[in-house]
Design brief:
It is a single chain. The protein has 348 residues and is of the alpha+beta class. It has 2 domains: 89 residues; 229 residues, Bira Bifunctional Protein, Domain 2 (BirA Bifunctional Protein, domain 2, 2-Layer Sandwich). Helix content is 38%, strand content 19%. The strands form 2 sheets. The protein has a 7-stranded mixed sheet, sandwiched between helices. Strands 2-3 form a two-stranded antiparallel ribbon. α1 packs parallel to α4 and α2 runs antiparallel to α4. The radius of gyration is 41 Å and the shape is elongated. The structure holds zinc ion. The site of zinc ion has 7 residues, from loops.
Length: 348
């Protein structure tokens, strides 16, 4: 048994040479010192050893164990230090190389256009008020003079959600929400998202952005002339000097109603495929607030009068940025989005 132990020692120490790698060191450790290793195996067989020899054998086992342990420890330390050195050398940083550029973000062109529009209206004395996207039938339709069977209430046009609520189809609910809690004189713009059951296409999207604006005061103080003045100012500030016209139209919540057209920016009124050769493009809808809308919020139409307008931000953005497909704004391709100059100088 003594010879066997000497053999274990000789073999272990020869394998734990100075050039042993991590795997070799580990293999020796497991084979000699492991739970079912060679030394453990010998200890199990101690009862075969005559009594008088046992102390010597026991001592020898402990000695070999300590020796192998010490050598394994020594080599492991050495290998660890070598690995660290190697990784430091390989990953040496060259401080003279140019640094990594961090891409600079910017606001989305649609948000940017909305901000610019809001800034123009603020400069004309309008306040910005946010209202809600999830609305009830009263604030989205009834109070805005949509009759009970108006086609806009159809399930095919409107997203209905649980509990008789719906996703607002326009930001005109802002008129009702604001006038319910505040009395005229009021000059307010309500920006926000709107939702309709349209497929995403060149000119339409199931979610889009609008700015609703309205001004209400005592009769005679806010007339159709003020409406024209404010929107002419807006068109000039936003699009630059261009020919505009007001064309009679129809909306349930305004009477009379009009649409603001401007000279097509592509052909400047000469006529081209984009403006269907008319020379004009629609910009927004507007009109004098219908007396029924004023009544719905407890304003006496014999005492108060006002105008309202609604601007489609994406549609106006298409015109302003010369983009011909609305889907590009929603696909979030940074190569597209990064093309446009910042207009507003940031978000409030
Ligand atoms: Zn044109």
């Amino acid at each position: 048994m003594k010879e066997q132990l000497e053999e274990i020692r000789r073999r272990a120490m020869s394998e734990l040479g100075d050039n042993a790698d991590e795997a070799q060191v580990d293999a020796v450790r497991v084979r000699v010192l492991g739970r079912s290793g060679e030394l453990t195996e010998i200890m199990r067989r101690m009862r075969e050893v005559p009594n008088e020899e046992r102390p010597a054998i026991g001592q020898l086992i402990n000695q070999i164990k300590r020796e192998v342990e010490a050598r394994v420890e020594e080599l492991s330390e050495k290998l660890k230090a070598a690995a660290l050195d190697k990784s430091l050398n390989e990953k040496r940083i060259d401080v003279t190389l140019p640094g990594m550029r961090i891409a600079r973000g910017r606001i989305h062109p649609i948000t940017d256009i909305m901000e610019q529009m809001l800034q123009i209206f603020e400069s004309l004395g309008f306040e910005v008020e946010m209202t809600q996207d999830i609305e009830d039938d009263f604030h989205n339709f009834e109070a805005l003079n949509f009759k009970e069977h108006h086609p806009a209430r159809d399930m095919q046009d409107t997203f209905y959600v649980e509990g008789g609520m719906l996703l607002r189809t326009h930001t005109s609910n802002g008129q009702i929400r604001v006038m319910e809690k505040r009395r005229p004189p009021l000059a307010i713009v309500c920006p926000g998202k709107c939702y309709r059951r349209d497929d995403l296409s060149v000119r339409a999207s199931p979610m889009f952005t609008q700015i609703e604006g309205f001004m209400v005061d005592k009769i005679g103080r806010v007339t159709m002339a003020h409406l024209k003045g404010v929107l002419t100012q807006f068109a000039q500030a936003f699009f630059g000097a261009t020919a505009i016209r007001f064309r009679a139209s129809y909306f349930p919540f305004t009477e009379p109603s009009a649409e603001l057209d401007m000279h097509c920016l592509l052909c400047d009124g000469a006529g081209c495929p984009v403006c269907k050769h008319s020379g004009w493009t629609e910009v927004l809808g507007c009109g004098m607030i219908h007396p029924n809308v004023l009544r719905a919020v407890g304003c006496d139409p014999a005492e108060y009068q006002g105008f309202a307008f609604g601007i489609g931000v994406e549609r106006t953005g298409l015109l302003k940025l010369g983009v011909d497909d609305m889907r590009l704004f929603f696909e979030n391709d940074l190569r597209f989005l990064a093309q446009f100059p910042a207009l507003s100088g940031g978000v409030r």
